[in-house]
Amino acid sequence: MSLYAKYLLPRLIDLAMSSKATTAERTRLIPLASGVVLEIGAGSALNLPFYGPGVRKLYALDPSQELWRLGRGRVRNAPFPIEFLRSSAESIPVPWTLCTIPDPTAALAEMRRVLKPQGTLVFIEHGWSPDPRVRAWQERLNPLWKRVAGGCNLDRQIEQLIGRAGFQISTLERGYGEGLKPFVYLYRGLARPANQT
After folding, report:
1. Domain layout of the chain by residue ranges
2. What is the pLDDT along the chain (197 residues), one digit of tens a residue?
3. Which of 10, 24, 98, 142 is the most exposed place for a label (fewest CB within 10 A)?
């Protein structure tokens, strides 16, 4: 692992994910999770303050040990127990994570496997823009962006990825967030295992 990936990138990610715009999105979506929750891409635990009183337990997963270390103080002060996944989840928030997971289809299939039959996938993600000009910029920028942003992809088709993994989207909002259009076409919503809606 390079020094950039180990020391600088986690701090840049924490800073970017602490922005006013991402905090506003967290405020809207994260409180929708309840019960036993599995958060994919927990990062530096920035979502913790936004979980509602309906959360009984949180399982938090993130491949970055460095980001998790940045969030230790937030974890210690959580109003509910947090531990590694050992059982089924009722809610799985996926905030800005599918863009970076190397095999998002396999990851979503695993999320579906651990989600209870009536559970909910709560997602906010950036990705593929329907505007051909913006999409052309996403495709131009993506190779460099992936290298400097820890594997993040600008052009993933989030709605299709979720559907192919066996989920049915029950609520979906699409549109541009704050910032440069190639980076901020957002998908926000809820999905359930396809045969359980």
Report:
1. 3-196
2. 688 988 899 999 999 999 999 999 999 999 999 999 989 888 889 999 999 999 999 988 776 778 878 888 888 888 887 764 533 689 999 999 999 999 999 899 888 878 888 899 999 999 999 999 999 999 999 999 999 999 999 999 999 999 999 999 999 999 999 999 999 999 999 999 987 54
3. 24
Q: Are 101 and 6 in contact (CB under 8 A)?
A: no
3-196: CATH class: alpha beta
Q: How far is the C-alpha of 156 from the C-alpha of 158, rounded, in Å?
A: 6
SS3 content of the chain, % helix, strand, coil (to 5): 40, 25, 30
> Under a CB-based contact definition with an 8 Å cutoff, are residues 36 and 56 in contact?
yes
